[in-house]
Amino acid sequence: MSFEKEFAARRLELSVKAKNGLDFIVAASIVWAVIAFVWTLPSSATKNSFITFFVGAATLPLAWLFSKVLRTTWTIPHNPIQPLGLWLNFAQLFYFPFLVFIYSKYPHYFIMTYGIITGAHFFPYAWFYQAKPYAIMAGVISGGCLLLGLRTPSTNLYLIPVFIVCSLLVLSILLLASYRLNKRAYSVVAVPST
Q1: Are 19 and 70 spatial neighbours (Cβ–Cβ below 8 Å)?
Q2: DSSP 8-state assignment for residue 21
Q3: Interval 8-15 mean pLDDT
Q4: CB 174 within 8 A of CB 58
Q5: Are 184 and 3 contacting, i.e. CB atoms less than 8 angstroms apart?
């Protein structure tokens, strides 16, 4: 098997065994639904932003739970590309200093900024899982959060996380369709175990 074919086969393996990261997207949908609720509370933007930070931390444990339900694989030891998925996820943490700045100076824009970071971090997964819906929804979520953030009055900021939840549900459906296509392609490709 040529290098290019083996590389493509290993990426297909990631897509199929991890089901395009569907467990993380479903978990994120639930977390963002809770965040939407938080932003309906009659608290200040500063307090809601603070709570949002902690609610967001539930994504990883929920994703682990959904990995059991959806039977996804988090680690594929023989696949040298697999660790990249974790690195791509951690990359968004380097945007958090900007998020802290927004929290401290402009808390009204916190939820918009957090949503933009969330959406934008999906983009490299389009390549990683060979799933174009990640690229499409990265733009939709980031652009949508910006538009809503600039046009939504402070009393309706919950609309931003509601928009994200709806976008993540659409992404889930698109990723499931992409997974099925990749699964068919993977069934005819042999990936050597090392």
Answers
A1: yes
A2: G
A3: 89
A4: no
A5: no
For residue 89, the model assigns a pLDDT of 81
DSSP secondary structure letters along 103-169: HHH-GGGHHHHHHHHHHHTTHHHHHHTT-HHHHHHHHHHHHHHHHHHHHS-GGGTTHHHHHHHHHHH
- Crossing angle between the packed helical segments 45-56 and 110-120, to the nearest 10 degrees: 30
Query: Buried b / exposed e across 45-60, counting CB within 10 Å, b at 16+?
Result: beebbebbeebbeebe
Q: Cα–Cα distance between 79 and 194 in angstroms, integer?
A: 8
pTM here is 0.91
Q: pLDDT exceeding 90 applies to what percent of the chain? A: 76
| Mean pLDDT across 132-142 | 98
Q: Is the pLDDT of residue 118 over 70?
A: yes
Length of the chain: 194
